[in-house]
Design brief:
alpha+beta; 4 strands
Length: 101
């Protein structure tokens, strides 16, 4: 069972904003954290931003990504990890959907 999950989400409904996902017990929070660095002009970046992390280049998506951590019982099982990954992969856009987006 899942005790906690948290991370960053790139949602198709918001290509500009990084979304934060946080779940603990029966509590769930999903909110905007601000813009992905890839969408912000470098002229306005604050001093000290790690440019190598902020400008990760995977195709043309920059630093946009899905990064969610799950904490729970039985999650050390490769079978359970695969089930979670497969479930979340079904939520991703297909290549055709992404191309249209």
């Amino acid at each position: 069972s899942t005790l906690r999950s948290k991370g960053f989400v790139w949602c198709a409904s918001s290509n500009i904003n990084s979304m934060y996902w946080s779940h603990s017990g029966i509590s769930f929070d999903y909110k905007c954290l601000g813009q992905w660095w890839a969408t912000v002009s470098r002229r306005v970046w604050p001093v000290g931003v790690d440019e190598s992390k902020a400008t990760r280049k995977i195709d043309t998506v920059g630093d946009r990504r899905q990064e969610i951590v799950f904490i729970g019982l039985g999650f050390d099982s490769p079978i359970k990890q695969k089930q979670i990954q497969d479930t979340l992969d079904h939520c991703l856009l297909t290549q055709n959907e992404y191309d249209e987006y």
